[in-house]
């Protein structure tokens, strides 16, 4: 299905709310009056100002985003703290008519243990978002103007030295007056030179191809304005083509693979025939396959092109009438709490509907392997790693038995994990990722111990996940690496991705072995070693041996 099927974000409102807040709950000068929806990190509620506590400039209605104080695993808590901090820093720094304004940041304190300590972002309230409109099949007749507004916000952010990092239809809110505003600044980050760094979080349908192979350093992954440009290209295509994504695939993961294939071959960009020039050429430029070529396309230049194409928004909203004619960020008068910076390209008016949503949160292990440090298997392997891997680059023995590796009924694989191991492997279309391979990885990683914990290597649970890496492959926003089902499904997905990468690249050597080696180290390490890197030989051989033993 064109529209709803591939906006890359799950249906709204499904599942438990990360933060349950009762109607009537008061935080700061706001009272909760209803529920709007939940995302990966928190829940958003409708709010109104409490009696005469409202101060000048407060909107009558607000959206209250509750970000929980301390839930989940240590890794998830750390990531959440970072998301909160980024939202706060950005909101307190800049303002623009096409950026959702954060009116206040509060901390919930009421004696309700489930809510107390939550950070609450008090925001202007949107009445709908572009994802909902596309999923509902609404006519986005005014799509060009919405795009103009989003682009003006991006140009402003980039000019002021910020990268949004999560541009997608669900983060383009539509206001009661019809105007569009960009929201959700949990990944937003300030540039330091040409780069900024962010946690490796994103919505896979909107991530540029190079994102998947970036190094993850101490500060996170490098994020450049070109990532926003790519995402804007995808967004533009979807807005102008009834929600259709420009890369083929039935899932966000598959479409991300298509985008990466396109980055290698230059083929596979499927522009919808409904889209007219000059929009087609604008999308093509935004979706230049590599960062370097995309670097020539600035959000400011796009805003100007859109203006020439007739999609430009114009007219100022009264509350934001102090503009720099040339788009140079500049502080205005005695702003109460925030530096107020306004750009040249302003905004206009549109549509509406209401609903809720949740987002795909993806994080991938690029160059560091599944664990940020070395795997915990060394010294714990009791399996028959007899014949060591050989060859200059540690090329392992081939593993013919792996390619049809269902689990033998008498294999020493705990019964309670067989079903999920099988599901995890069969979710992968490649022949190398089999139940036997997945089971063997678990055996070597943890000995099938769901409570496995190795703080020294930052790896935990049955699959030995490093928490921040797990987030990328987690089967859902609330998945837990200590939960065997979640950990095993994520391990299967990660193995699958690695195998698909090698299938595309055709490196020399046995694909199963390379996949296992990359699982322990990284695709980059395997490429550089032109085979199994020396430090992955023991792990790889152990896994292959167990896989043969387990295979029927
Ligand atoms: N300022 C707002 N006004 C109205 N609705 C909002 C506002 N901010 C968020 N929402 C809605 O609340 C829901 C949850 O939003 P939130 O930003 O937490 O998550 P998301 O963007 O859907 O997902 P993720 O956090 O995974 O990116 C969404 O339906 C979103 O449209």
Automatic annotation (TrEMBL):
Residue intervals passing through the bilayer: 340-363
Compositional bias annotation for Low complexity: 378-401
Biased composition (Polar residues): 366-377
Record-annotated Protein kinase domain positions: 30-306
EC number(s) stated in the UniProt entry for this protein: 2.7.11.1
Region annotation (Disordered) ranges: 307-336, 366-409
SMART domains: S_TKc (SM00220)
Enzyme class, spelled out: transferase
Binding site for ATP: 65
Gene Ontology terms for molecular function: ATP binding; protein serine/threonine kinase activity
Lineage: Bacteria, Bacillati, Actinomycetota, Actinomycetes, Catenulisporales
Record's compositionally biased regions (Basic and acidic residues): 314-326
Protein's UniProt name: non-specific serine/threonine protein kinase
Entry-linked Pfam families: Pkinase, SLT
Keywords: ATP-binding, Kinase, Membrane, Nucleotide-binding, Serine/threonine-protein kinase, Transferase, Transmembrane, Transmembrane helix
């Amino acid at each position: 299905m064109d529209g709803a099927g591939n906006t890359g974000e799950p249906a709204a409102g499904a599942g438990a709310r990360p933060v349950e807040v009762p109607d009537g709950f008061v935080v700061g000068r706001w009272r909760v009056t209803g529920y709007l929806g939940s995302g990966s990190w928190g829940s958003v509620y409708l709010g109104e100002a409490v009696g005469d506590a409202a101060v000048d400039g407060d909107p009558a209605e607000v959206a209250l985003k509750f970000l929980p104080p301390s839930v989940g695993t240590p890794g998830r808590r750390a990531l959440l703290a970072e998301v909160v901090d980024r939202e706060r820093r950005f909101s307190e720094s800049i303002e623009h008519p096409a950026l959702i304004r954060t009116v206040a940041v509060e901390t919930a304190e009421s004696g309700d243990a489930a809510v107390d300590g939550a950070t609450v972002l008090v925001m202007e309230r949107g009445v709908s978002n572009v994802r909902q409109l596309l999923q509902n099949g609404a006519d986005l007749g005014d799509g060009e103007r919405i795009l103009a507004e989003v682009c003006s916000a991006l140009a402003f952010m980039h000019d002021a030295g910020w990268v949004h990092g999560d541009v997608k239809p669900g983060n383009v809110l539509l206001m009661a007056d019809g105007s569009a505003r960009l929201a959700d600044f949990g990944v937003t980050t300030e540039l330091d030179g040409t780069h900024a760094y962010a946690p490796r979080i994103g919505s896979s349908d909107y991530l540029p191809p190079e994102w998947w192979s970036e190094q993850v350093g101490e500060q996170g992954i490098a994020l450049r304005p070109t990532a926003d440009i790519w995402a804007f290209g995808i967004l533009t295509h979807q807005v102008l083509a009834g929600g259709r994504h420009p890369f083929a695939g039935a899932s966000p993961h598959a479409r991300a693979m298509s985008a990466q294939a396109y980055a290698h071959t230059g083929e596979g960009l499927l522009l919808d025939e409904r889209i007219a020039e000059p929009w087609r050429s604008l999308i093509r430029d935004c979706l230049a396959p590599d960062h370097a070529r995309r670097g020539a396309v600035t959000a400011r230049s796009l805003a100007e092109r859109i203006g020439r194409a007739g999609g430009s928004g114009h007219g100022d909203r009264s509350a934001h009438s102090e503009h720099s004619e040339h788009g140079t960020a500049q502080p205005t008068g005695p702003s109460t709490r925030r530096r107020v910076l306004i750009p040249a390209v302003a905004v206009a008016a549109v549509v509406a509907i209401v609903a809720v949503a949740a987002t795909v949160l993806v994080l991938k292990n690029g160059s560091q392997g599944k664990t940020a440090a070395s795997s915990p298997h060394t010294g714990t392997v009791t399996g028959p790693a007899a014949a060591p891997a050989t060859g200059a680059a540690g090329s392992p023995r081939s593993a013919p038995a792996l390619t049809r590796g269902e689990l033998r009924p008498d294999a020493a694989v705990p019964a309670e994990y067989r079903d999920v191991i099988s599901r995890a492997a069969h979710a992968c279309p490649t022949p190398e990722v089999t139940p036997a391979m997945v089971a063997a990885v678990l055996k070597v990683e943890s000995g099938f111990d769901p409570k496995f914990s190795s703080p020294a290597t930052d790896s935990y649970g049955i699959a030995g996940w490093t928490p921040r890496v797990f987030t990328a492959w987690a089967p859902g926003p609330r998945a837990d690496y200590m939960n065997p089902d979640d950990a095993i499904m994520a391990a299967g997905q990660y193995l699958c991705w690695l195998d698909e990468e090698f299938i595309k690249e055709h490196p020399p050597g046995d694909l199963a072995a390379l996949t296992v080696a990359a699982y322990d180290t990284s695709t980059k390490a395997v490429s550089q070693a032109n085979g199994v890197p020396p430090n992955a030989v023991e792990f790889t051989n152990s896994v292959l041996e167990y896989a043969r033993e387990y295979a029927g």
